[in-house]
Amino acid sequence: MEATVFDFNHPLIESVLLPLALALALTPSLLWVLGARWGNRLAAASIGLALLVALMLTFGVPAWPARSGMQKLPLILVLLLAGGMVVDIIKPGQIAVMLTTIAAIVVIALWLGWPQLTSGDTGMLLLLTSASLLALISLYGLAAAQPDGANRSAMIVLAALGLAGASFNASSLALFEVALALAAAVGGFALWNWPQPRLPFVATGISVGGLGCFAVALLLLLLTQIRPWMLLPLPLIFAADAVARRLPVPARFRRTTIEPLYIAAIGLIPAVMVVLLAQIPTSSDDLYYH
């Protein structure tokens, strides 16, 4: 009888089980090391740490200076992790958080889209501007959700899974693995907050998870033949919490057991739409993709 060999290099191991396990392990570890006060504020850093470790084990340490989009992505995640932690530590006002968020979106868009902008692609500026505005609206919906429980996590997981499905249909294995790893890392943190809320999902989680989805979506548009309109349902996922709060939920279940399930069911619809739209064949003779 032939022995079964466990392949640790399998994409599902590297992109799902590894970041999931790391997030599950790092979340209580940060809480224990940092103590109750700082641990509660910074526990969501486990998402970024788990994601970065998984990506480096999968793709290796990114080159410096980073030239390609895939080389820039881990560095963007490092900056998002650090920026989110700073916000959670100093707790600035809403205006400062909004300005910081806008600045982060602009930096991500310009850095990833700079090669196309400098090549004279006039449509690229419109694409980056539109994508940035939709990202800002999505982050507003994410930030408006309840910080306790798994509501925010559920929306990010669904958005990342939608991007993973679109990446798979666009034949981009690298982005498929990145999106899966992002979903798994956020999912690992979410398991600590469902069905019983334990840790808040605050700026660090929103920064790595929400803006991480934005960076992956931009790379999907820049590096594959995915058309921008195929990703238009994505922002609707981040409206799921607002819709769920208007559904009849018993008060004792609110923000704990039932509401995240409502959010998952509502957000699943636009996520599936993204995957289905990405299956539509596109012409490869467009100069935008050369």
In short:
By secondary structure, the protein is mainly alpha-helical. It has helices spanning 11-42, 45-59, 69-90, 94-118, 122-144, 151-169, 173-190, 203-223, 234-237, 240-244, 258-277. The protein is globular and about 55 Å long.
What does this structure look like?
It is a single chain. The protein has 290 residues and is mainly alpha-helical. The chain has one domain. 70% of the residues lie in helices and 0% in strands. It has 11 helices and no strands. It has helices at 11-42, 45-59, 69-90, 94-118, 122-144, 151-169, 173-190, 203-223, 234-237, 240-244, 258-277. α6 (151-169) packs parallel to α11 (258-277). The longest helix has 32 residues, at 11-42.
Instruction: Tell me the Rg in angstroms.
Output: 19 Å
Overall, the morphology is globular
The unreliable regions are 284-290
Q: Approximately what portion of the residues adopt beta-strand conformation?
A: under 5%
Features:
290 residues, 11 helices, 0% strand, globular, disordered C terminus
Task: Summarize the SSE layout with pairings.
Elements: H1 11-42, H2 45-59, H3 69-90, H4 94-118, H5 122-144, H6 151-169, H7 173-190, H8 203-223, H9 234-237, H10 240-244, H11 258-277
Helix pairs in contact: 1-2, 1-7, 2-3, 2-7, 3-4, 3-8, 4-5, 4-8, 5-8, 6-7, 6-8, 6-11, 7-8
